[in-house]
Design a protein that fits this description.
- With 82 residues, this protein is mostly helical.
- Helix content is 67%, strand content 0%.
- The longest helix is centred in the first third of the chain and has 46 residues, at 2-47.
- The radius of gyration is 30 Å and the shape is elongated.
């Protein structure tokens, strides 16, 4: 009976180790893919044509950026509230 408990324990440890190793490998692959995508994006930005950026022609149809925070509600409604 003790032999079966030892066997189950050893098999459990081996399975846990295998799953842990596979998880680490998958995580490493994901990081590698992310790094490759970042490098491709960086290379595309370096080789892109700078004529089609905002520096040459501003975007059309976007609302302008606010220059400051909006005034507080109390100040807006002060004339109505008295």
């Amino acid at each position: 009976m003790m032999e079966y408990i030892y066997l189950v324990t050893i098999v459990g440890i081996i399975l846990w180790s295998l799953v842990n190793k596979l998880d680490n490998h998958a995580e490493m692959k994901q990081k590698e893919r992310q790094r490759m995508a970042s490098n491709v994006a960086r290379m595309n930005l370096r080789s892109s044509d700078k004529q089609f950026t905002y520096d040459v022609e501003p975007p059309v149809g976007l609302r302008p950026e606010p220059l400051a925070l909006p005034e507080p509600r109390r100040a807006r409604y002060a004339k109505y509230l008295g």
